[in-house]
Design goal:
The complex is a heterodimer of chains A (83) and B (705). Chain A is α+β, with helices and mostly antiparallel strands. Chain A contains 2 helices and 5 strands; from the N terminus they run E-H-E-E-E-H-E. Chain A has a 5-stranded antiparallel sheet. Chain B has 4 domains: 182 residues, Rossmann fold; 58 residues, no CATH class; 181 residues, no CATH class; 164 residues, no CATH class. In chain B, strand 2 and strand 3 form a beta hairpin. The N terminus of chain B is likely disordered. The chains are: A alpha+beta (83), B alpha/beta (705). Chains A and B meet through helix 1, strand 2 and strand 4 of A and helix 4, helix 12, helix 13, helix 14 and helix 17 of B.
Chain lengths: 83, 705
């Protein structure tokens, strides 16, 4: 986990971040890594459903929806404030 | 390359299709535009079947050019060569030639969405290790262009061991001829060199291949290294022999260290993809399209949710309102056909079998076809445009409260028209427990076959009095719909807490960009699904219709009073038929619910298909075919027990309605549950469970009200 403790779940709508580390022990997280959520990927929080969960993220032209608790496994270093 | 063609073609097809010169597997991620491309390449020269023993559809098409016949096999979408769902497992098994009854493909057509090279190139890297010729089709090249992606196709090909890369626009046909020319000779091309992305892995596989007792592909050994010896990889381990065990361990340690192998693979491969993308893809500021605007608007939680309810309302409206005129037409048509045939065949058992049994029985299925086709059309349109995934995402939180996930919402909604397509739609749910819980909950939704029974009983026995600005009849109908929804949800919740207990499934769903659905793809899919429905439901209902007819027709009465009218005579016949006897036999069981033998016989006759009930009630209360429902409801109102008490009292009717809301009186649904769960246990459970709830509900209503 990053020193600042930021994860994908703490990105605001429209904000971008680069994944800095992934806690890969959970097989479900490994599955998400196979879909492309790995260190170095720039990810934007594109929106969410009512109540803020699940969240939608976009990276390299693909969109994925994750539940908040899954988003917690991906630490990000914030970079750029997005649109 | 026609080595195994004989075994691949079913006997029935030999007369029409020649042996293909080569078989090419069409591999790509979900939403990569794979099906649209496949349809564009093969057109209507395709057939849809099932893989042996499973419900995954097998699409095979042919491509004819230069006197050669190439067979294309459209595989279920997969992100990579390690399976995370049942459908992915099927795709991977076919690619490796492990699928029973199918030969390994001679070559691979890799379909990659040009706007999503990132995930596409992950898969292509793995396909390069198959040691078979590969061609990459870059689909939606026009969309990539307008959204500001400049792709250097030649440079991309150079990074992928020099395999051909063909940009195509499947919707307009641009680039299709070039791709076709590549496909014709593809199987004769040499296999590509190993992927440059992870040379250590390729080298390790190359080295281990020397232990193999039968030839193994690099990709197979790589999967063994990464995914371990579970499942199909066990076979690879055995082929390598015991001597290789120590070597395998040494390689795994060197390759992965302390990382989970799958995570390591994702890191290495996507790291390489990012490097390649920097070189082959330039992003210019995108054209601000309607897609972007729409996506942005719909991504706001409140408009998105309102939008979803609007879409559902339109689908409902279409299914129930648009279908009615066609359904009336079919209804009249079957009646006319039945009477014409009856008139032509005379008065015997054959005439009765054809007109009352077959035409009326099969007509009762055909009548739901317009609704089901409209429903299918909307589901396919929503799926193709990319909205279906978004609906699942928007509803996930609500569905999680009842132990399901967002993906269950579409099957549930579909079941309001008919549980059969609803249950077929559960295939999108990757988690098995979730899927079964949804399948068992779906038949509780008020399907359109329940509606006629509700309408008849409500109109006859619920007073049309106003309550505030609402009408009591409408309120009862609404309550019945709500009852079904709540019963379904509680059932799902109960199952997820008991028999289907398990970890909360993750919800990782790819959300594709909106795109305009392709007419050809939509029509081919619609036709395919309609055929499957008609065949499956049709065969079941047909046999059931014949059986119910026979039970009501035999044994023939010999001593019917000739002074009776025709209607009274047919009622007397029914009373002493097997069906009537069965009704009388079970009357004691249903008496606590307030049902006499006539209601009981109608209910028994309705077990194969609930819509039959009205027809049987009509016969048993001797109104005959020519009477409309108003007279039937009057007959029901005046029906009495032998001691003069009314049969249809208010508590009895409420109980009967509750029974109908619950009871799984539908052989087609049971058959489809059997197919989709691959066991008789679940349909048996669903039947017993729903029937008991219906019985107890009706009992409580009759005794307590």
């Amino acid at each position: 986990m990053d020193a600042n403790g930021k994860t994908l779940a703490s990105l605001k709508r429209g904000q971008k971040g680069v994944i800095s580390s992934v806690d890969a022990t959970d097989p479900q997280v490994q599955r998400l890594m196979v879909l492309g959520l790995v260190e170095g990927a720039e990810v934007e929080h594109a929106g969410c459903a009512l109540g803020g969960d699940p969240m939608e993220f976009r990276f390299f032209g693909c969109g994925i929806s994750l539940r908040r608790e899954q988003a917690l496994s991906f630490s990000v270093s914030s970079h750029g404030s997005g649109v | 390359m026609s080595k195994a063609a004989e075994t691949r073609i079913p006997l029935s097809d030999i007369s029409v299709s020649r042996q293909p010169n080569a078989s090419i597997a069409v591999v790509g991620g979900p939403n990569s535009g794979k099906s649209t491309l496949f349809n564009r390449l093969t057109g209507l020269r395709q057939r849809i079947g099932n893989y042996p023993g499973v419900t995954v559809e097998r699409h095979v098409g042919t491509l004819k050019t230069d006197g050669k016949t190439i067979e294309l096999v459209d595989l279920p979408g997969t992100h990579g060569l390690s399976a995370h769902s049942f459908e992915e497992q099927i795709a991977i098994n076919v690619i490796f030639g492990r699928m029973e009854g199918t030969q390994p493909p001679d070559a691979i057509l890799a379909v990659v969405d040009a706007t999503n090279l990132y995930q596409g190139l992950f898969l292509v890297q793995q396909l390069l290790e198959l040691e078979r010729p590969v061609v990459v089709a870059l689909t939606m090249f026009d969309v990539a262009d307008t959204s500001g992606l400049n792709i250097d196709v030649a440079a991309l090909s150079a990074h992928l061991s020099g395999i051909p890369v063909c940009p195509v626009v499947a919707t307009t046909g641009k680039g299709i001829n070039e791709l076709r020319n590549v496909l014709v000779d593809l199987a004769d091309q040499p296999a590509p060199a190993p992927a440059e992305s992870w040379p250590e892995l390729s080298a390790a596989a190359e080295q281990l291949a020397r232990f193999a007792t039968v030839p193994l592909r690099r990709a197979e050994i790589e999967r063994l290294l990464i995914d371990g010896a579970a499942g199909a990889n066990q076979h690879v381990l055995e082929c390598l022999g015991a001597n290789a065990a120590a070597e395998i361990e040494r390689h795994r340690e060197k390759l992965f260290g302390f990382d989970p192998p799958l995570a390591k693979e994702a890191r290495v491969r996507y790291g390489w993809v990012r490097k390649v993308l920097d070189e082959v893809q330039q992003t210019v500021p995108p054209f601000y399209s309607w897609r972007t605007r729409l996506t942005e608007w719909i991504n706001r939680p409140v408009p998105g949710t309102i939008g979803l309810f609007l879409v559902m309302a339109i689908v409902f409206q279409a299914v129930f309102a648009w279908a009615t005129p066609i359904m009336d037409l079919i209804d009249d048509g079957t009646a006319v056909l039945g009477s014409v045939v009856a008139a032509g065949l005379g008065d015997g058992a054959l005439a009765s079998l054809v007109s009352d049994g077959i035409i009326a029985g099969v007509g009762s299925v055909i009548i739901f076809l317009p609704q089901i086709l409209i429903l299918f059309l909307f589901i396919i349109l929503l799926e193709d445009s990319g909205y279906l995934a978004r609906a699942a995402y928007l509803m996930d939180r609500a569905m999680r409260l009842v132990g399901l996930s967002g993906q269950s919402i579409i099957p549930m909604i579909s079941s309001f028209a008919c549980a059969v397509p609803g249950i077929m739609a559960t295939r999108v749910i990757p988690n098995r427990r979730d899927r079964i819980a949804t399948i068992i909950a779906a038949p509780f939704m008020t399907c359109s076959a329940r509606l006629p029974v509700y309408a008849l009983l409500i109109a006859a026995f619920v007073p049309a009095q106003a309550i505030g600005f609402l009408n009591l009849q409408g309120l009862v109908l609404f309550a019945l719909y709500m009852f079904g929804i709540i019963a379904g949800i509680l059932t799902a919740l109960l199952l997820r807490k008991t028999a289907l207990r398990g970890p909360k499934p993750p919800f990782a769903l790819m959300l594709p960009e909106f795109r305009r659905p392709n007419i050809q793809t939509v029509m081919i899919q619609l036709l395919g699904r309609a055929k499957v429905f008609l065949y499956r439901a049709g065969t079941v209902i047909f046999s059931v219709a014949v059986v119910v007819w026979a039970l009501a027709y035999y044994p023939r009465a010999t001593d019917i009073d000739p002074t009776l009218t025709e209607n009274q005579a047919s009622a007397a016949q029914l009373e002493q038929s097997w069906l009537g006897r069965a009704g009388k036999f079970v009357e004691p069981a249903f008496e606590p619910l307030g049902w006499d033998w006539r209601v009981s016989s109608a209910v028994i006759a309705g077990f194969p298909a609930r819509e039959v009930v009205i027809a049987v009630l009509g016969t048993v209360y001797a109104v005959g075919d020519e009477a409309d429902e108003a007279t039937l409801s009057q007959r029901l109102k005046s029906a009495t027990w032998p001691d003069g008490r009314l049969v249809f009292t208010f508590p009895m009717v409420i109980g009967l309605l509750i029974f109908y809301a619950c009871c799984l009186q539908c052989a087609a649904t049971l058959a489809v549950i059997r197919r989709e769960t691959n066991t008789w246990r679940w349909p048996a459970f669903a039947w017993l469970y729903m029937t008991s709830i219906g019985y107890v509900g009706a009992l409580l209503a009759y005794q307590l009200l």
